[in-house]
Amino acid sequence: MEFNLKEAIEVLERTPQTLEHFLSGLSDGWLYCNEGEGTWNAIEVVDHLIEGEKNNWIPRLEFILQNGSNQPFPEFDRFSHLKNQSQRTIDQSLQEFKTIRMENISKMNTLIEPADFELEGYHPAFGTVKIRELLSTWVVHDLTHISQIVRIMAERYRSDVGPWREYLGILKKRDLNNK
């Protein structure tokens, strides 16, 4: 599959709306449930996405454009959102995510063009990476966390579904991973 910026933006633009439609107005039971000790709840996932918007995707894109692969870009602390737990409501967090995401998409569109997709940067853990890989990862990162939120919420009713668990693939995946 060849990277297509227009198609990538289709997903990036929709993620804030998807999360808003899915999470806004839900009770705390849904928003704060998790999959067990050391796992995130839906609010923590949204806070993580906000941190990524502020400190990962566009800053790394700008770093690659300015420095190439001459030096590694700064590491991104994937858990920083857990250190500074906010007191925002889910609706406030979703609005912040939406605002920053739209600004970042706009900024990305001014920073790059297709000729830049193969420009390289240096990731501190992975080594040489390309802009198209960074942007593709941004899209798949969104999809990963949307899937994670759905899985977290399904887990809440794991014991309540009784024998139907056998037919609920979202619950069976965890069973397979724990074997």
Automatic annotation (TrEMBL):
Ranges where the DinB-like domain occurs: 12-149
Pfam families per the UniProt record, alphabetical: DinB_2
InterPro entries: DinB-like (IPR024775), DinB/YfiT-like (IPR034660)
Superkingdom of origin organism: Bacteria
SUPFAM superfamilies to which the protein is assigned, alphabetical: DinB/YfiT-like putative metalloenzymes (SSF109854)
Protein name, as recorded: DinB family protein
Source organism (scientific name): Ureibacillus endophyticus
Lineage of the organism: Bacteria, Bacillati, Bacillota, Bacilli, Bacillales
